[in-house]
Amino acid sequence: MSRSHPCSCAVMSCVDENFYCFVCGKNWKLSLAEVTSFLQTHDHKFEVHEISRTFFTFKTDVPLNPTIIDALGGILKIAKVATFVPTQQLADAFVKEDKQAKLQLKNSLPLDVLASKMPQASSGKAVFGVSVYWAETPFPFNKLAHTVHRFLGSSLKDELKAQDKKTRFMGFPRRREHPHLTAVEVLKKGLVEDNAEILLCIGKNKTAIANTVAVHNPFEFQKRDVEKPVQRKIFAIPPRIAKIVVNLSHCTADKVFLDPFCGVGTILQEALLARAKVIGVDLNRWCVDAARRNLSWIEREYSLEDANFAVLQGDARHLTSKLREPIDCIATEPDLGPALRQVPTEAYAVKLVNKLKPLFGDFLSEAYHVLRENGYLVVVAPFVKTRAGKPVTMNLQEMALKVGFKIVKPLQTVFFTQDSSAAPSLKELSTFVDVDEHHKIGREIHILQKIKV
Question: Can you list the domains of the chain with their CATH numbers?
Answer without folding.
Answer: 13-216 (3.30.2130.30), 224-450 (3.40.50.150)
